[in-house]
Amino acid sequence: MEALPSKEIMRKNGIFNKISKIYRPNDTGITFKTVHEAINYFWTKEAQHLFRYCCKEEYCLTDNRDGLHWTVAFGEPDNPPPGMIKWADHWRDGKQELHDTNKWFNNPAVIEHNAPELF
Q1: Which of these, 73, 35, 38, lies nearest to 57 by C-alpha position?
Q2: What Rg value do the Cα atoms of the chain yield, rounded?
Q3: Domains in the chain and their CATH numbers?
Q4: Which helix (H) or strand (E) holds 72?
Q5: Nearest Cα to Cα of residue 13 among 117, 115, 88, 116
Q6: Which residues pair with 43 in a beta bridge?
Q7: What would the pLDDT profile of 22-78 be if each residue is shown by its tens digit?
């Protein structure tokens, strides 16, 4: 695995490419006690590991505790070497690979794609 800079270094030049979504279980009646419980319900360990490319993350439960609301953003490096893949692109490509191999979700979600940003 490549060495990543600290989150502070990753956001030194600002944060870009924000993504905000709400995931709800396909099965109605499921509620969560904690954010961590919801994260583990929806995402595989491989998916959770991919968030290392985000320079800022925020998660909360929805008002009814029946969903996970999340926002992530990515930074830009100082003087990137030629050919360096941006962190947002690493995340996007990794997410696609996990989706393609059915390793993104532990449990499928109903997704609200245009959720308000948490930060």
Answers
A1: 73
A2: 15
A3: 7-112 (3.30.1370)
A4: strand 68-75
A5: 88
A6: 105
A7: 999 998 899 999 999 999 999 999 999 999 999 999 999 999 999 999 999 999 877
